[in-house]
Every structure is written in structure tokens, then in C-alpha cells.
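Re: that backbone. C-alpha cells:
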């Protein structure tokens, strides 16, 4: 009976080990399938972009004057290599230069017409500003705040830093309400321009 129990225990251990190995192998197989699918998707996207670029290049080069060629169909040497020995690459064509110049003129005119809002602080007021208090919210070995927002109705400030932490700070009491350490990288503001960090965190 003792020998039978020992043999049964050994078989159960072997079964448990085999199950663990099978689970690990299935996990690796699933991860490999996911990586292969992602690589195939990226390959197809790259091929599509390459095909699109190949179709657009002839259309963009149609308006450019043809380079000088020699009898065998190759470009002339003076068009390929400059005086310094480097290969000469085609620059921006005149059509693009005209579009950039027109856009620059339009944006400059808009900036000149823009008026300073009356609620904006003047230079004299800014010079009279003084520091009332200082609160180190993030780690000193990785200082720096990348994003910040203030609650519209409560005096609460949310900051995201280089130290991968997000901090909620109560300005009235001068205390840190909580530190969110769930991020693995630097905390940047959300992509949407009208989103609030308070709701993001």
C-alpha cells in the first residue's frame, strides 16, 4: 500500500509538471501568433504605402524639368555630383515655394491683426509677481512636470511628471491628495485638445 501511494504521488507530480509545461508552451504559441499577425499587418501597410508613393512620384516629377542626359540614358555627371564631391539632390520645386510663401503671407497678416485680450496680465503686473509657496510634488531624482490642469470648481491641481507619476494636489491645504503610480512612462496630457487632465486621471 505504501509503494502504491508513493507511485501515485509521483505520477501526480509528473502530471502537474506536464500541465505547467503545456500551459507555458501554449502561452508562447499564442504570443508568437500575435507577433506574426502584427508583423504581417505592418508589412501589408508598408507595401500599401510604398505602392501609393510609387504612384505619386511620377505625377510629382511630371512638372519638373528633365535632367540633362547623355547618349546612354544616364544623367550627366555635372548633374549628379557637385563641386564638393557630394551627390546633388533635387530641392523644392517652384510650385511648393509659391505655396509656402503665400501661406506665410496669410499667417503673418492674421498675426498682425490679432489683438491682445484685455484680461492678459501686463508686463508691470508680471514683474510684481512673487513666489508665495513651493510644493515639491514629484520625485527629485526625476524632476519636471509635463502636464497640468486645475479643477474648474475646486482648488485641486493635477500634474503629470517625468517620474511616471500623476499627482492630485489640494492647493488650499497644501497637501497631496494622492499619487497615481500606475503609469510605466512619462505622463503626457491626453491627445484631445479639449480634454481635461482632471477627468483623464
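Recovered sequence:
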Amino acid at each position: 500500500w505504501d509503494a502504491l501511494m508513493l507511485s501515485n504521488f509521483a505520477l501526480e507530480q509528473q502530471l502537474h509538471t506536464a500541465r505547467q509545461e503545456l500551459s507555458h508552451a501554449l502561452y508562447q504559441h499564442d504570443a508568437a501568433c500575435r507577433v506574426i499577425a502584427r508583423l504581417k499587418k505592418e508589412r501589408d501597410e508598408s507595401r500599401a504605402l510604398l505602392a501609393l508613393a510609387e504612384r505619386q512620384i511620377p505625377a510629382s516629377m511630371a512638372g519638373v524639368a528633365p535632367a540633362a542626359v547623355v547618349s546612354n540614358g544616364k544623367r550627366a555627371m555635372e548633374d549628379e555630383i557637385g563641386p564638393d564631391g557630394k551627390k546633388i539632390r533635387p530641392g523644392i520645386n517652384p510650385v511648393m515655394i509659391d505655396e509656402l510663401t503665400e501661406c506665410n503671407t496669410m499667417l503673418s497678416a492674421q498675426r498682425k491683426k490679432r489683438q491682445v485680450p484685455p484680461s492678459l496680465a501686463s508686463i508691470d503686473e508680471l514683474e510684481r509677481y512673487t513666489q508665495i509657496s513651493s510644493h515639491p510634488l514629484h520625485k527629485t531624482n526625476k524632476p519636471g512636470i509635463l502636464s497640468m490642469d486645475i479643477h474648474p470648481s475646486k482648488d485641486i491641481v493635477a500634474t503629470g511628471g517625468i517620474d511616471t507619476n500623476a499627482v492630485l494636489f489640494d492647493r488650499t491645504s497644501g497637501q497631496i491628495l494622492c499619487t497615481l503610480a500606475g503609469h510605466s512612462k512619462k505622463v503626457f496630457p491626453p491627445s484631445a485638445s479639449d480634454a481635461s487632465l482632471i477627468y483623464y486621471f
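Residues 59 and 166 are 49 Å apart (CA to CA). Confidence is low (pLDDT under 50) at residues 64-78, 192-201.
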